[in-house]
């Protein structure tokens, strides 16, 4: 009957994540995702292979060294327009589906980190991967925060946000698995080497994940030496060479060769800046990943007015029901308590370092020091940070839940319920504000992927969109790409209204 339990826990975790993402699913395609939705298809002339080549080449520009990630991103955005126009459905469905899939893969990887972390720390009992998955998914779904920024990985940047997080957590899980006492074989070396090299060429943020795996290999080496396990010590050294040293050399050498002097670059996202401002940004980013960490800023953005409506209440009640089901199933399962041993420092330390240094990869750059001042202002590191926190909270739940006296458990449940209802209400309100603010995006995207509507309707969509205060470069690219893509796919002009065209030209200058 083990398969029944696995299906139960896997299904429960998936439902948690689906409910947690309901508010985010209401936000239209925004920011650079909206820009790339049209640009990638036009630049590649409708060729999937050319889109990948374009992305790969972009990965060596502006001081970047992320050709793998850029190629994956280009393929993703090409697919968004190609799929939407082929089936004439809103690209938001594509975005929500893959965003939710990337989140699911991230939590699945985080559950693997926790599972192998428990085994690495000395848990002898059957851990049960899907049971751990359900717990991490529950904590993530209850604590994840939406933010009114276009660079919030919860609602945008799917391949770079949750996609990067998934790769990084799988890499950390591989490190913990490969150094678990008694582990042998060469397969781990191959996996660790390939994934680590791919990670640093996927997105620079994953250097923080490499640092996290370094903690694992160092801890495994010290543990093996203390136990006089020469085989284990050499294994830790070999894994560290492939999983830390090799990718670090590739990253450092590549960045040195591709570096652009500050006075020649118009992009500050890869320009380092160390000092008090960087520390303040890092601290704000770290706090923002904690449950409720961004609330003061997020509430202030809404004027302090957040109320529980019928739809958000239904989502909150469903999450409460799933939480009760999780607690019931957990009580009926075997005890799973992490041991308080020195080996527990290895997985816990690795997750903490991963969280801290992944955040630092952005907090120490000029661009994000200028943009991120308080908890609640985020960038892609939030996707890693909030799941790192979920792993640590899950570890704490397993370690301390059974030690809470019966008299104190109702109070704990009350606190969880209050957190859950507040977070869902806040997320729903933020999603509503974003849906209203970016409604022209949804209208224009809907008109650009089908020829079922009239030209007048398309011109109205374009006329409404261009009146928003977009930067000139953004306005220029989107209006050009929308019209060229539509004519390429459907064989007719998107909008020939001279008044609208003249207004576009006036705004573009």
From TrEMBL:
The chain crosses the membrane at residues 96-116, 128-148, 154-174, 186-203, 209-224, 236-260, 280-300, 312-330, 345-366, 378-401, 407-426. Keywords: Membrane, Transmembrane, Transmembrane helix. The keyword Transmembrane applies. The keyword tRNA processing does not apply. Signal peptide: none annotated. This is Glycosyltransferase RgtA/B/C/D-like domain-containing protein. It comes from Cellulomonas chengniuliangii. The lineage of its organism: Bacteria, Bacillati, Actinomycetota, Actinomycetes, Micrococcales.
């Amino acid at each position: 009957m083990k398969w029944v339990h696995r299906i139960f826990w896997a299904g429960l975790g998936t439902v948690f994540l689906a409910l947690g993402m309901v508010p985010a699913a209401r936000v239209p395609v925004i920011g650079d995702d909206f820009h790339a939705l049209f640009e990638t298809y036009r630049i590649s002339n409708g060729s999937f292979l050319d889109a990948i080549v374009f992305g790969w080449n972009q990965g060596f520009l502006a001081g970047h060294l992320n050709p793998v990630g850029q190629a994956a991103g280009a393929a993703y955005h090409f697919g968004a327009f190609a799929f939407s126009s082929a089936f004439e459905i809103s690209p938001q469905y594509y975005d929500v589906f893959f965003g939710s899939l990337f989140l699911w893969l991230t939590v699945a990887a985080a559950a693997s980190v926790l599972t192998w972390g428990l085994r690495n720390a000395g848990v002898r009992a059957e851990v049960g991967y899907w049971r751990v998955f359900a717990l991490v998914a529950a904590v993530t779904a209850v604590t994840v925060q939406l933010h009114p920024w276009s660079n919030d990985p919860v609602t945008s940047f799917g391949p770079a946000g949750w996609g990067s997080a998934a790769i990084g957590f799988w890499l950390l899980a591989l490190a913990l698995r490969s150094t678990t006492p008694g582990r042998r074989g060469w397969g781990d070396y191959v996996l660790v080497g390939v994934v680590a090299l791919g990670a640093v060429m996927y997105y620079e943020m994953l250097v923080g994940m490499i640092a996290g795996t370094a903690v694992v290999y160092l801890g495994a080496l010290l543990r093996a030496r203390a136990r006089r396990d020469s085989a284990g010590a050499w294994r830790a050294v070999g894994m560290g060479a492939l999983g830390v040293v090799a990718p670090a050399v590739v990253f450092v050498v590549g960045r040195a060769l591709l570096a652009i002097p500050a006075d020649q670059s118009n992009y500050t996202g890869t320009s380092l800046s160390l000092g008090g401002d960087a520390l303040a940004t890092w601290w704000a980013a770290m706090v923002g990943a904690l449950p409720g960490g961004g609330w003061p800023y997020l509430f202030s953005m809404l004027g302090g007015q957040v109320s529980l409506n019928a739809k958000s209440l239904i989502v909150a009640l469903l999450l409460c029901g799933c939480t009760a089901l999780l607690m019931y199933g957990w009580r009926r399962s075997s005890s799973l308590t992490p041991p308080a041993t020195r080996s527990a420092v290895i997985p816990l330390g690795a997750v903490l370092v991963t969280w801290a240094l992944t955040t630092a990869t952005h907090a120490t750059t000029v661009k994000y020091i200028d943009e991120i001042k308080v908890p609640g202002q985020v960038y892609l590191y939030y996707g890693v940070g909030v799941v790192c926190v979920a792993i640590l909270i899950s570890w704490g739940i397993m370690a301390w839940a059974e030690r809470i006296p019966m008299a104190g458990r109702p109070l704990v449940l009350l606190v969880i319920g209050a957190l859950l209802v507040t977070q869902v209400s806040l997320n729903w309100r933020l999603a509503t504000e974003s849906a209203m603010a970016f409604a022209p995006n949804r209208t224009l995207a809907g008109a650009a992927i089908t020829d079922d509507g009239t030209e007048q309707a398309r011109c109205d969509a374009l006329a409404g969109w261009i009146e928003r205060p977009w930067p000139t470069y953004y306005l220029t690219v989107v209006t050009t790409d929308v019209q060229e893509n539509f004519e390429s796919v459907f064989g007719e002009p998107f909008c020939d209204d001279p008044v609208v065209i003249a207004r576009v030209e006036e705004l573009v200058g």
